[in-house]
């Protein structure tokens, strides 16, 4: 046994020893008080009666100490919860009879057995009834010590797994032992009155023995009280526990033991549980169908996107050759037409790339490759790439890079995709003014902060959260530009899988600010992006009200 376990047992033994000692003192005092009450106003008591009581209490206490020692050494602390009170109840009458036979004078011992039993009955009743009474609080205290012990448990029941005592057991025990103690006191009083009679009429004892019926009635009352919702609650709890483990077919049925309103309540509860189980099965089936449809949709989008990208790349390549004058230079009207073809193809290719990216993200196939990256250089390249789009607009596009910007670990291509998306959106929705892409280092949080600030039309406050959802665009249909509404959803997912986040602030008519925060060294570096789990949790959070579902229920 480990030293820690030994220390735990020693601590329990010391506390339980104090309980047993206090029980012995209480037993001693109560037994003497009851003996006095039994003998008051009647014939003289049994010779050496108080000595017999004292010795019997002492013998009972020694029996309790022996039971406590054996259980503490060779059993669990909870084993003492039953053995010590049981020893107290069983040893009390046995010790009383034993010491009475040893202490009483020979002339009393030579009397007929019936008269001898009547003579020692008051002493036995006093010791035994006191033991029954004090065993109840002693058992409660020992039970409290056992369940609070670090290695303790609740008492076992017929060798089965440990379980808390039921209300039926506790009430039945209290009523039965209390009634038996009262019956013993009354029976002892009657026996004491008969001990002074010259001739003993055994029939006079029958009413006293009739009092023993009351403990049986008390036990029956406790069992009847046990027909409370306790049984039904336990049955429902087991059924629900089995359902949570996926063993609905193995769950025990709910047995309703009452025919009143409580029984009707639990009957309705079982019917409700059945409907809930059917709804859960139906939900699981529908969810599986939805997941299958989602996988089919993702595969379809993936295949179609790949098939469309090839001809669009061909169109883009040939338009580039035509604009470069191969095989012959183009006239100005022809060049304008080819530029329109090229612009339309580029826009369509961007849309297809977004659809392909979101399809890869949802299927977990979008790969990430982390490496140290100069984000300041990436910002300048992004701004230079988009400058030609502003030649016909009164808009100024600037890059502001803080000096001594440290290199961050990220996927350069995907972070560049986020920046391209933010700058592209800013250009679409800014008719005049300026667009600033600013990057700085936050030494306190050890993060790099990139901001795209524009003076465009802005976004209403009630639409800010929706712009990061798939296929969602802000503003009225007249204000919306061409696009799929996927860019920001992809950008936020990429940012979150880098350990950062993407947020937006905006005011209608004043402009918008998109902030991308990235840690210098992401704690987790996933090899791919999988939005399936995040999307499922987002749907659940929208469906349930706050407080209706715990985080553990989503696992």
Report the uncertain regions: 152-163, 477-481, 536-555
Determine the N-to-C terminus distance: 38 Å
Evaluate the radius of gyration.
43 Å
Largest sheet: 5 strands, mixed
Question: Strand order, biggest sheet?
Answer: 3-5-6-8-7
How many helical stretches? Answer: 15
Question: Descriptors for this entry?
Answer:
single chain, 555 residues, alpha+beta, Heat Shock Protein 90, 2 domains, 15 helices, disordered C terminus
Could you explain how this protein is built, in words?
The chain is an alpha+beta fold. The chain has 2 domains: 215 residues, no CATH class; 188 residues, Histidine kinase-like ATPase, C-terminal domain (Heat Shock Protein 90, 2-Layer Sandwich), CATH 3.30.565.10. Strands 3-5-6-8-7 form a 5-stranded mixed beta sheet, covered by helices on one side. Strand 7 and strand 8 form a beta hairpin. The radius of gyration is 43 Å and the shape is rod-shaped. The protein starts with a helix and ends in a 12-residue tail after the last helix. The relative contact order is 0.05.
């Amino acid at each position: 046994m480990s030293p820690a376990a030994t220390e735990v047992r020693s601590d329990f033994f010391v506390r339980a020893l104090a309980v047993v000692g206090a029980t012995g003192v209480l037993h001693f005092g109560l037994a003497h008080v009851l003996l006095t009450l039994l003998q008051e106003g009647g014939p003289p008591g049994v010779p050496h009666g108080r000595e017999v009581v004292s010795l019997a209490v002492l013998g009972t206490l020694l029996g309790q100490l022996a039971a406590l020692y054996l259980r503490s050494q060779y059993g669990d602390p909870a084993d003492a919860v039953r053995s010590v009170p049981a020893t107290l109840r069983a040893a009390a009458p046995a010790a009383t009879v034993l010491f009475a036979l040893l202490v009483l004078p020979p002339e009393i011992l030579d009397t007929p057995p019936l008269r001898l039993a009547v003579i020692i009955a008051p002493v036995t009743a006093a010791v035994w009834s006191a033991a029954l009474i004090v065993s109840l609080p002693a058992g409660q205290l020992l039970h409290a010590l056992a369940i609070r012990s670090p290695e303790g448990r609740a008492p076992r029941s017929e060798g089965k797994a440990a379980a808390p005592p039921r209300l039926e057991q506790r009430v039945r025990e209290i009523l039965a032992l209390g009634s038996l103690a009262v019956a013993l006191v009354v029976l002892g009083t009657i026996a004491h009155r008969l001990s002074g009679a010259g001739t003993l009429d055994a029939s006079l004892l029958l009413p006293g023995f009739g009092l023993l019926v009351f403990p049986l009635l008390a036990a029956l009352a406790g069992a009847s009280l046990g027909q409370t919702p306790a049984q039904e609650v336990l049955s429902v709890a087991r059924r629900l526990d089995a359902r949570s483990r996926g063993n609905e077919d193995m769950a025990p049925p709910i047995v309703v033991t009452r025919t009143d309103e409580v029984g009707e309540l639990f009957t309705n509860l079982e019917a409700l549980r059945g409907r809930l189980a059917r709804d859960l099965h139906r939900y699981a089936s529908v969810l599986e169908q939805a997941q299958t449809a989602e996988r089919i949709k993702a595969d379809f989008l993936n295949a179609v996107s790949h098939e469309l990208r090839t001809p669009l790349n061909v169109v883009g390549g040939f338009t580039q050759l035509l604009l470069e004058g191969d095989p012959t230079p183009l006239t100005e009207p022809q060049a304008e037409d080819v530029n329109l073809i090229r612009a339309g193809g580029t826009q369509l290719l961007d849309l297809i790339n977004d659809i392909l990216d979101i399809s890869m993200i949802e299927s977990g196939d979008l790969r990430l490759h982390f490496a140290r990256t100069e984000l300041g250089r990436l910002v300048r390249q992004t701004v230079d790439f988009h400058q030609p789009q502003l030649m016909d607009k009164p808009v100024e596009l600037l890059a502001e890079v803080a000096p001594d910007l440290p290199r961050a670990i990220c996927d350069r291509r995907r972070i560049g995709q986020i920046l391209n998306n933010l700058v592209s959106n800013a250009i679409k929705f800014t008719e005049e003014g300026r667009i600033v892409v600013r990057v700085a280092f936050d030494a306190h949080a050890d993060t790099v902060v990139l901001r795209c600030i524009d003076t465009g039309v802005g976004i209403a406050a009630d639409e800010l959260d929706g712009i990061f959802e798939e296929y969602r665009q802000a503003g009225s249909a007249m204000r919306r530009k061409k696009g799929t509404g996927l860019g920001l959803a992809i950008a936020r997912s990429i940012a979150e899988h880098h350990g950062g986040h993407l947020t937006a602030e905006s005011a209608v008519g004043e402009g918008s600010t998109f902030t991308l925060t990235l840690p210098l060294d992401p704690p987790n570096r996933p090899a791919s992006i999988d939005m399936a789990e995040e999307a499922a949790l987002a749907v659940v959070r929208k469906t349930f009200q706050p407080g209706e579902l715990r985080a553990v229920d989503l696992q």
